[in-house]
């Protein structure tokens, strides 16, 4: 198959969909890989590394879309790319269709095949192509939180791990899923006093088993949260209710009960946030202060560490990309239900119900195309 890897053009997006190592795997299997000039630069991969792996460098985004049967990307196509997409071309990338109607309509009109990273789903209902970015964001939440706890940055001026003779900081993590677990590992490793709150007893039993002694678990409810925020130095929001807006577990009135210089990192901000006063911020301007409490609410945290994020993402996407390249999308989806669930748009029809429902658009069963 002919695979094209364009350079991401969305503002501040430095990730790339394929590493030189990934290109080598595909070339080894007889596929042709075309990478747009400097596509890997933002993640630290030079054109020469792709060439050494057997890929061909193309000068423009137009040439890359023109030649490819499968386009591998990171972010959804943006407006200038719409006209480059060809009928029957397979697009394998994040789309998040339900959040943007013009994109959905443009992909329907393009008659391309859109296989969305975010809806590839395993039989246990986990989302293997979202997990890596949650892992990055969870670990980063503590790195950022520790930083903003420093006095010159508005924080309480407390060192996360303390020192001999001085107690460590208290870290409260709301939600013990992927983000919360990774945040807990990082905070615990730095020596903080960590509490994870969740509503799932099964999850907390698991966490209590695997976490070190400086991590405790506690049932998440309003009473317990009100009690815990009085003592917390760093609070991480990591709650997710699939398909719904995050619940506001920390409301505006609770800020007055917090210590001056407490830091809030609401990772769940991309789903509306679990802290009422959190509004999406950017890496250029990541924080603001309300009632002496520092809010960090960057909606695309992994974007700040493109090297790690690209490797984490491509570790997860490459096995699927290989199946798609080896078999073509139809056979690959027939053979692997995880990939079939990733199909969102085919030949001008929406085949993922939640996307069609989001915009009241017609919907076709994916089976129609996989029979
Ligand atoms: N800002 C970013 O850059 C970024 C990056 C990656 C992920 N995220 C977001 O982080 C959030 C968490 O993602 P995840 O992968 O960890 O999800 P997950 O599904 O693995 O975990 C969510 C956890 O929240 C728990 N939960 C649900 N209701 C709760 C409540 N009332 N109190 C406490 N816990 C509750 C669930 O039991 C679950 O354990 C999502 O909104 C995700 O989109 C943001």
Automatic annotation (TrEMBL):
EC class: oxidoreductase
SUPFAM superfamilies in alphabetical order: Formate/glycerate dehydrogenase catalytic domain-like (SSF52283), NAD(P)-binding Rossmann-fold domains (SSF51735)
Protein family according to the UniProt entry: Belongs to the AlaDH/PNT family.
The EC number(s) this enzyme carries: 1.4.1.1
Domain Alanine dehydrogenase/pyridine nucleotide transhydrogenase N-terminal residue range list: 4-137
PROSITE patterns for this protein: ALADH_PNT_1, ALADH_PNT_2
Keywords: NAD, Oxidoreductase
Signal sequence region: none
Name of one Pfam family that matches: AlaDh_PNT_C
Catalysed reaction, written as an equation: L-alanine + NAD(+) + H2O = pyruvate + NH4(+) + NADH + H(+)
Entries under InterPro entries matching the protein: Ala_DH, Ala_DH/PNT_CS2, AlaDH/PNT_CS1, AlaDH/PNT_N, AlaDH/PNT_NAD(H)-bd, NAD(P)-bd_dom_sf
Protein name: Alanine dehydrogenase
Chain ranges of the Alanine dehydrogenase/pyridine nucleotide transhydrogenase NAD(H)-binding domain: 149-297
Gene3D superfamilies in the cross-refs: NAD(P)-binding Rossmann-like Domain
């Amino acid at each position: 198959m002919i695979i094209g890897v364009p350079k991401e053009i969305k503002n501040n997006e430095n990730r790339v969909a394929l590493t030189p190592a990934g290109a080598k795997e595909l070339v080894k299997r007889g596929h042709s890989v075309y990478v747009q000039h400097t596509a890997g630069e933002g993640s630290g991969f030079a054109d020469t590394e792709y060439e050494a792996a057997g890929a061909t460098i193309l000068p423009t985004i137009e040439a890359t879309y023109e030649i490819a049967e499968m386009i591998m990307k990171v972010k959804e196509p943006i407006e200038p790319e719409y006209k480059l997409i060809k009928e029957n071309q397979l697009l394998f990338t994040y789309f998040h269709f339900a959040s943007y109607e013009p994109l959905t309509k443009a992909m329907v009109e393009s008659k391309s095949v859109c296989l969305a990273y975010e809806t590839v789903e395993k039989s246990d209902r986990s989302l293997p192509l979202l997990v890596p970015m949650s892992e990055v964001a969870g670990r980063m939440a503590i790195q950022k939180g520790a930083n903003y706890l420093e006095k010159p940055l508005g924080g309480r001026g407390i060192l996360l791990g303390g020192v001999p003779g001085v107690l460590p900081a208290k870290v409260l993590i709301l939600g013990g899923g992927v983000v919360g677990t990774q945040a807990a590992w990082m905070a615990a490793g730095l020596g903080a006093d960590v509490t994870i709150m969740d509503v799932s007893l099964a999850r907390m039993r698991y966490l209590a088993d695997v976490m070190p002694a400086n991590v405790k678990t506690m049932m998440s409810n309003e009473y317990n949260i009100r009690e815990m925020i009085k003592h917390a130095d760093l609070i991480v929001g990591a709650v997710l209710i699939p398909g719904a807006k995050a619940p506001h577990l920390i409301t505006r009135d609770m800020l007055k009960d917090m210590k001056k210089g407490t830091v809030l990192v609401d990772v769940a901000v991309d789903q509306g946030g679990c802290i009422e006063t959190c509004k999406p911020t950017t890496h250029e301007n990541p924080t603001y202060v309300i009632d002496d409490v520092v809010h960090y609410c960057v909606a695309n945290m992994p974007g700040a560490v493109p090297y790690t994020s690209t490797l984490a993402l491509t570790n997860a996407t490459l096995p699927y990309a290989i199946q798609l390249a080896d078999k073509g999308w139809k056979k690959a989806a027939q053979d692997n239900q995880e990939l079939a669930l990733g199909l969102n748009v085919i030949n001008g029809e929406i085949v993922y119900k939640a996307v069609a429902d989001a915009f009241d658009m017609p919907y076709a069963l994916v089976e129609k195309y996989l029979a």
